[in-house]
Amino acid sequence: MIKILANLRHGALIAVLSLFAASIFMLYLGALKVYKAIIGYITNTGNIILEGTTAEKVITHVSQADAAIGRIIESIDAFLIALVLMYTGYGILAIFCDNDGYYAKQLPAAIVPKNIGQLKETIVQLILVILLVLFMRNIWFALNDLNWELLVLPISVALIALTLKLANLSKGHD
Fold it and tell me: By CB neighbour count within 10 A (0-12 exposed, 13-18 middle, 19+ buried), where does 97 fall?
């Protein structure tokens, strides 16, 4: 009975495969954002936000080059999410499905987390980076209409960072 229950951990392979599929999708979205930034710059339409929708607007306070830079900064989020999804997939594979250390030997040590705490900490750090990039994007595109409500994101980032520091997730989970 114990052997059957122990083998259920291989159900984690579903999560691993799903994470790798999501990672490939995020890599595609990041590349698409870079492509749109380049095409927007070349065709002189880079400062149009939500093009083709009823919410479409033209950002007049940024140049085409600055709009392209803003879009490329947005693509960083997609690439970071893709990398963290891969890291999480490798971590689940190594922690739950790797009895003899085969996967850990095949992969660089830097991308194989040692415990669940490292996986959780990496995901929280990713959330912090995404919130910071979102804040920068909001500031970038709203320079003409700044208000105090924009401070909600950096305050959230500070509180999450403080919580992460106090929790110290990667220790004590070996």
Answer: middle
Q: Tens of pLDDT along 2-36?
A: 777 666 777 788 888 999 999 999 999 999 989 88
3-state secondary structure at position 49: strand
Structure tokens at 106: 């095949």
- Residue range 101-159, pLDDT digits in tens: 777 777 777 777 878 888 888 888 888 888 888 787 777 766 666 777 778 888 888 88
Query: Can you name the residues that pair with 49 across neighbouring β-strands?
Result: 57
The DSSP bridge pattern shows strands 48-49 and 57-58 to be antiparallel
Separation in Å, CA 145 to CA 68, 75, 142? 20, 24, 5
Q: Rounded to an integer, what distance in angstroms lies between the CA atom of residue 68 and that of residue 41?
A: 6
Of 98, 88, 80, 79, nearest to 15 by C-alpha is 88
The first and second tokens of residue 15, run together, are 């999560």
Contact 75, 33 (CB under 8 A): yes
Tokens of 114: 């040692």
Q: Where are the chain's structural domains?
A: 2-167
